[in-house]
Amino acid sequence: MTGPRFAAPSGREGDSLLPSLFLSAATVVGTTLVVQFATPADPCGKSLRFLKQLGRQEKGNLTSASDVESSVGEYERLHANSTSVDERNSNYTNLVNSYYDLATLFYEWGWGASFHFSNRHPHESFDEATRRHEFYLASKLNLSGALGKIGVDGKATNGHAASNGHSEPREGSTPSMARVKVLDVGCGIGGPMRNICKFTGADVTGLTLNQYQVDRGNELCKADPHFANPNAAANGLPEVRCRSVQGDFMQQPFDDSTFDAAYAIEATCHAPDRVGCYAQIYRTLKPGAIFACYEWCLTDKYDPENEEHVRIKKQIEEGDGLPDIASTHHCLAALQKAGFEILEERDLVNDEYGGWQDPTTGAYSTAKEARAHHRGGKPWMLPLMPSWNPLTQRFQFNWFGLRLTKYSLKVMEFLRLAPAGTSRTQILLQSGGMGLARGGELGIFTPMYLMVGRVPLDK
Prior knowledge:
Blueprint: H1 11-38, H2 43-57, H3 68-78, H4 85-90, H5 92-110, H6 126-138, H7 143-147, E1 181-185, H8 191-200, E2 203-208, H9 211-223, H10 232-235, E3 242-246, E4 259-265, H11 274-284, E5 285-298, H12 307-320, H13 328-337, E6 341-347, H14 368-373, H15 399-414, H16 422-442, E7 445-454
Parallel strand pairs: 1-2, 1-4, 2-3, 4-5
Antiparallel strand pairs: 5-7, 6-7
């Protein structure tokens, strides 16, 4: 009895294999070149920037540790089963800094500058969906109302700026939108901040705990001339209309009543105490100002007695730097307890987007009725679901892609093209991605629970 033949073919069989290998390699190279020169994707440029920034991480650019491997070790310790939720909450600054020291480069390389999810409408690109999701949140901030309370010189006018002392309005009598000050709570490297600044014209300050993200965000802000304020000194405005600031959103480094509006996009989920976090936002906002956010939450479908649900929750926490995941009920109650008047709340996951949705509830479904409802829309978790298309990032989530990514990064570590610990970082992120995808499929998790609150006028 002979065993299976795994030996390399010889003779003519081997000769016939070589053209196939060359053809496959040529196809990969050719496809990469087409994508590089015929689309705005720029895979070669992104990969080169990624490798360059990986090298910089070993040269004093980490917030949480001296090198990547030590940062991974601290992060894994905080998320070990022997570490309680209370300890993770008390050490949330180390947890978040360790996570974003490790994850930021991978996010920017594979996702872009906006670290958040969005459903995609039919015929909508990934980038278009990302911006629409951000602009929708910005539309909730009532920035025109905030502008109406600001005089041309930046002083409060109680809503009479437009008249400027005249019975009839005059063209050019309203102040510049650049005088409206908006806070981005948990800004990452500032992708949403820059998009919202362009969309509204407001002055936006981003707050993030991680110094690496501050440096990278400000680098990107200063590199774009769009954000420069012309005649800034003469007009009493900062030179750049948006910037990142290092700070803890549990102890914000701003005076009371500084901002005209604030928003958070999938960021305050890192807070160890939602009431404390929202109370800090409340403190820095002016009376009548609006705070709008997208929260990461467990839904009513989550069952703490279900082993799969508990495993998914743990995967998301470990893969995304969370001390714990709160429910939608908990977050809404916390916002009200912090002092906000609740104006609007709902789970945007179930909004109509023409995808695989239950026609009645809007929930993700693969049932016959949902397939009939599908018009080309895509659910938020689709980029995290496995695919065998090698030209998409979804390829890394199939069994072969998981191994290929892991061992490719190990080879890069061995060749010193990537710091030691890079492959362990990617494994953590992939595990979190798979937890998010499955949580979205089951409907037990949402990354876009919308809450809109207003500071009372008699604050």
